[in-house]
Write a structure and sequence with these properties.
Layout lengths: L31 H26 L13 H10 L5 E3 L5 H6 L4 H9 L32 H15 L5 E6 L6 H13 L3 E7 L2 E2 L2 E2 L19 E6 L3 H16 L5 E6 L18 H8 L3 H11 L5 H22 L20 H17 L11
Parallel strand pairs: 1-2, 2-3, 3-7, 6-7
Antiparallel strand pairs: 4-5
Helix pairs in contact: 1-2, 1-9, 1-10, 2-7, 4-10, 5-6
This protein binds thiamine diphosphate and magnesium ion.
Thiamine diphosphate (TPP) binds next to β4.
Length: 377
């Protein structure tokens, strides 16, 4: 078996404090510390996204999928979960893993795909895994995680184990067969499952109106025999409370809920996309005015929890934390060549070993380093 990278010797300051409460209370009972942790997490994730997009533009990473504008939806979900819950993410839920203890450096290393990446450079950037946090690797194939999530919920039900399984999706997944199969069986089994859809209104260049005939995604749940609820996806407390109630219902044997968080993808689909080629950016400008971080900031200020000095401290901490994470992992070497064939099969495969030896000889002959000295791919 290949080596798992050693844990980092010292934690990055301020990340442990982002953990959600073990039993999330109703939104109106959230403590000041949690409200501020939610805000810090939103700022940290925005800072990370902004920086990682720059890194991609500079050619230091190959690809990135930001959640900019969707922080309230992602983190509203994150803070409503209990530790025993399971998450099957789509592309824009990585912040859930972060607040459940996935080291920011591990996330950044995953984007570099170097030796500090637990998945050893085998996945595209943003495909994080966080086993102890019950966070599965996202599946690139749209909607394919949804039957897995329902299978997990069914297993929890059959075994009588605590926890709810969360099936995350974007609006684009509703035209996949997997979505309908998962919804059908979740309803049939009354499985302890919450479908969490971040409807950011675009699936790359396809707007929601060209994806589905129903006005909302939430109403689709009715056809499968359970409740669907739509919430303001740019209001973190609205998302939090809607998800929390859905989770509580599932925990008490009340079956699944489909939660639709209505939001907007203000940037490109990923760094490989240019949305100005297919959408009216005046619409984007309107959604930027509903920025979820600014909105939550106004609420916190009204409650006396945030002022200019604290805001400046939070932004400085976020910037320093992200920069430090990048500095600590960027220059790690690429995974060793033998990682190409390690962890692939339970028993060593002579054919793969022969191929690796042949590759080594070819590299020695040509002096070519296929991964590049700095691990860039
Ligand atoms: C089965 C499948 N078809 C097509 C793609 C290409 N693809 C990648 S992301 C994406 C759009 C996803 O949109 P949505 O579900 O709304 O999520 P978002 O990216 O907006 O968060 C598509 C079509 C894919 N990955 N898998
Ligand atoms: Mg979408």
């Amino acid at each position: 078996m290949g080596a798992v990278p050693a844990p980092f010797s010292r934690p990055l300051p301020g990340l442990e404090e982002l953990r959600p409460p073990a039993v999330p209370p109703p939104a109106q009972a959230l403590g000041e510390d949690t409200l501020l942790a939610m805000y810090r997490a939103m700022v940290l994730v925005r800072t990370l996204d902004t920086k990682m997009v720059v890194l991609q533009r500079q050619g230091r990473i190959s690809f990135y999928g930001p959640i900019t504008g969707q922080e309230a939806a992602t983190l509203g979900l994150a803070y409503a979960l209990r530790p025993e819950d399971w998450i099957f993410p789509a592309l824009r839920e990585a912040a859930v893993a972060l607040v459940r203890g996935l080291d920011l450096r591990r996330m950044v290393a995953q984007c570099f795909g170097n030796v500090l990446d637990e998945t050893r450079g085998r996945q595209m950037p943003c495909h994080y895994v966080h086993k102890v946090g019950h966070y599965y690797a996202m599946s690139s194939s749209i909607g394919s995680q949804l039957p897995h999530a329902v299978g997990c919920a069914y297993a929890l039900q059959v075994r009588g184990e605590p926890g709810v399984s969360v099936a995350c999706l974007g609006d684009g997944a509703v035209s996949e067969g997997d979505f309908h199969a998962a919804m059908n069986f979740a309803g049939l089994w009354r499985a302890p499952c919450v479908f969490f859809c971040q409807n950011n209104q675009w699936a790359i260049s396809v707007p929601y109106e060209k994806q589905s005939a129903t006005a909302t995604i939430a109403e689709k749940a009715q056809a499968y025999g359970f409740e669907g609820r739509r919430c303001d996806g740019n209001d973190i407390l609205a998302v939090y409370e809607t998800v929390r109630e859905a989770l509580e219902k599932a925990r008490e044997g009340g079956g699944p809920t489909l939660v639709e968080a209505l939001t907007y993808r203000v940037l490109g689909h990923t760094t490989s996309d240019d949305p100005s080629r297919y959408r009216d950016e005046a619409e984007t400008a309107r959604w930027k005015e509903r920025d979820p971080i600014a909105r939550f900031g106004v609420q916190l200020r009204a409650r006396g929890l945030l002022d200019d000095a604290r805001e400046a401290e939070i932004r400085r901490w976020a910037r320093e934390t992200v920069e430090r994470a990048i500095a600590e992992v960027e220059h790690a070497p690429p995974p060793p060549l033998e990682s190409l064939i390690e962890d692939i099969t339970a028993m060593p495969q002579p054919r793969l070993e022969r191929q690796l030896a042949e590759l080594r000889r070819a590299l020695e002959r040509t002096g070519h380093d296929p991964l590049g000295a700095a691990g860039h791919r």
